[in-house]
Amino acid sequence: MATQMFEGRGHAAVYQKYRFAPGKELQQTILSYLQEKKAVPGELAVDIGCGSGQGTHFLGEHFKKVVGTDISEAQIQEAKETPCMPNISYLVCPAEELPFQDASVDVLTVFTAAHWFDIEKFMREVERVVKPGGCVAISTYTVDMSVRYGDCSEKLTKIFRECWDVILKYSHNKVKHVLEDYKTIFEALPFPDKKRITDIYDPIPMTVEGVVGYMESASSYQTFKKNDPKTATSLLQETEKRMLEAMGVSSRETPVEFWVRHVCVLGCK
């Protein structure tokens, strides 16, 4: 069974506010592969574990119909309340029990969610629903992140990572799939035509508030907060204060560049 970490409405709201869409490099990596395999433009794309829809939106331009699915009702509610193209819809279902007919899906995507699934059962569903010649793109951003601003990028990244390291101590054991760059997920994909790219770097435009909010949206931070709310809250407050001091600014709306490294598993049936 999938591990459910983003169930509460409060967590879903934080997730919707602070999680970012796939960056340009990741989007281009996926689109180039789909073009190479002649999978775009296509009829039906399905985005599994879509959360509040950050990754689902970019598929809307390339497919007649896009369906985002997630096991969390709260996440799907957030997704439905966010403006999107009319060809995008959402539904609640587990990744291991997809309500699609055999060989009916042109492209199946998963953005930063596959590590929560029961991988063996999920891959059986992938094999079942994807058309012959259809494609999958399963990606995640990794814990390799940096914060850039003027000449204090090194100091800012150090402050961020000190906070992030504390939060990661509360990670679920399924995060091991992210730490190993989705190697197990790549090996489990039942298509012979497949590849794994581990060095896709994207600068995400954010603010200081956004960087701190991203950490708040992490499942490991939510676990930390449940265990020790006072310490968890003060850690983020102190980290934001340190970042602003390092930058020599007072506004948490100050723009920064948040650099992330993506891993992407691509396959064609």
The name CATH uses for the topology of one domain is: Rossmann fold
Q: Can you give the helix content as a percent range?
A: 25-40%
- How far apart are the termini? 25 Å
Query: Low-confidence stretches at least 5 residues in length (pLDDT < 50)?
Result: 1-12
**What radius of gyration results from the CA coordinates?**
18 Å
CATH C-level class of one domain: Alpha Beta
CATH superfamily of one domain: Vaccinia Virus protein VP39
Q: How would the global form be characterised?
A: globular
Protein name: CRG1 methyltransferase
Family: Belongs to the methyltransferase superfamily.
Pfam family, one: Methyltransf_11
Organism: Grantiella picta
How would you summarize the topology of this molecule?
Layout lengths: L8 H10 L5 H13 L5 E7 L14 E8 L2 H8 L7 E5 L12 E7 L7 H11 E19 L4 H16 L7 H4 L3 H6 L4 E15 H10 L1 H9 L1 H19 L7 E14 L1
Parallel strand pairs: 1-2, 1-4, 2-3, 4-5
Antiparallel strand pairs: 5-7, 6-7
Helix pairs in contact: 1-3, 1-8, 5-10, 8-10, 9-10
Describe it.
- GO terms for molecular function: S-adenosylmethionine-dependent methyltransferase activity.
- Belongs to the methyltransferase superfamily.
- It holds the Pfam family Methyltransf_11.
- Keywords: Methyltransferase, Transferase.
- With 269 residues, the protein is of the alpha/beta class.
- The chain has a domain of 182 residues: Vaccinia Virus protein VP39 (Rossmann fold).
- The protein contains 10 helices and 7 strands.
- The chain has a 7-stranded mixed sheet with strand order 3-2-1-4-5-7-6, with helices on both faces.
- Helix 1 packs antiparallel against helix 8 and helix 8 packs antiparallel against helix 10.
- The radius of gyration is 18 Å and the shape is globular.
- The N terminus is likely disordered.
